[in-house]
Amino acid sequence: MKKILSVENLKAYYDVKVFGIERTVKAVDNISFEVYEDEILGLAGESGCGKSTLIKVLYGILKPPLYVKSGKVLYHLNQPVDILAMDIEDKKEKLYWKVVSYIPQGSMNVLNPLLRIKKQFTNILKVHHKEKAKGDLEEMVVEHIKNLGLPREVLNSYPHQLSGGMRQRVTIALATVLTPRIIFADEPTTALDVVVQRGVLQLLKDLQKMYRNTIIMVTHDIAVHAELTDRLAVMYAGKMVELSSTREIFKNPLHPYTKFLINSVPQIGEKTIKNSAPGSPPSLANPPTGCRFHPRCPLAMRVCSEKEPPFKEILPEHFVACFRVGGDEKDD
Ligand SMILES: Nc1ncnc2c1ncn2[C@@H]1O[C@H](COP(=O)(O)OP(=O)(O)O)[C@@H](O)[C@H]1O
Ligand code: SF4
Ligand SMILES: [Mg+2]
């Protein structure tokens, strides 16, 4: 598998003032991983664990109070491109829409409420196809909409005239109109009801098959990951705690937190929702020492509150950060 993106020791923090006291929220705290061409990688974890922050940094949106403390994000195009070293104009010209697209939480963050959908497409296309006439651009849009199975009428609508599900499909169509190599999607189906959600997930799946690109899909909903993703990265309190193929993670989850996440999915026929991990996630302004999961972990040992478990490849392509896995540390 060829890598398209690599993240090395990334730390991204927010400096905030709470009741007049300066605090640093360590939302992404020393994360390293690689993303491959032609895969759907899922990012899972409870709300507040740093998923959206990680995606924003990978896409290069760094608005204060968010900043990168250290680490690297490299796009492996013809040569490695360091997105964190590029200025905004450079990113707009060279990367956005044609190499990488971002579908943020809530489609109204992307769509302009005052413009018909067709205009929003042609506005993007004309920046990157300056040589083409208006009619040709419109033809490209119609062709693209047809390829994705959307009704042509949406092009003449304003965003508010569409249903939530259709708006999200249009946002996905917009993100893919220049066939980018990478798409980041942050909770793209969370606001939708289950039936509509299914259709939108299927659209993402179909277009990945069609374009063989990379999708990085964020959702706290582990059932969505099971249905959609090829590999799964699990985050907890600003750290990545497990990464492997989705099939392997569901068959052989190794981190105690991952086990809780998977156990929390109701099985067919079950009437009760299972327990998630006891307690709640820690504040990222003052995270626990050692393994950040130790206050909630039923398997915690003394070492867990003293040292941080390294993120290690325990089995081929299966990475875990836990002292109980891999057998280096003994209970005491
Ligand atoms: N603009 C901001 N200013 C300060 N803290 C923030 C901001 N955005 C997010 N955070 C904090 O960063 C942490 C990670 O948040 P986020 O990346 O949104 O998590 P997730 O997407 O997993 O729910 C949380 O503690 C959140 O409160
Ligand atoms: S390192 Fe310790 S506290 Fe952390 S998940 Fe593993 S056993 Fe639990
Ligand atoms: Mg989020």
From TrEMBL:
Which part of the chain is the ABC transporter domain?
Answer: 5-262
Is DNA-binding one of the keywords? no
Give the GO biological process terms: peptide transport
Q: Which UniProt keywords apply?
A: ATP-binding, Nucleotide-binding, Transport
Q: Does the keyword Nucleotide-binding apply?
A: yes
Alphabetical list of Gene3D superfamilies matching this protein: P-loop containing nucleotide triphosphate hydrolases (3.40.50.300)
GO MF annotation: an example: ATP binding
Superkingdom of origin:
Bacteria
PANTHER family named among the record's database cross-references: OLIGOPEPTIDE ABC TRANSPORTER, ATP-BINDING PROTEIN, OLIGOPEPTIDE/DIPEPTIDE ABC TRANSPORTER, ATPASE SUBUNIT
What NCBIfam families does this protein map onto?
oligo_HPY
Name of the protein in question: ABC transporter ATP-binding protein
Q: Which organism is it from?
A: Fervidobacterium pennivorans
Q: Taxonomy-wise, where does this protein's organism fall, top ranks first?
A: Bacteria, Thermotogati, Thermotogota, Thermotogae, Thermotogales
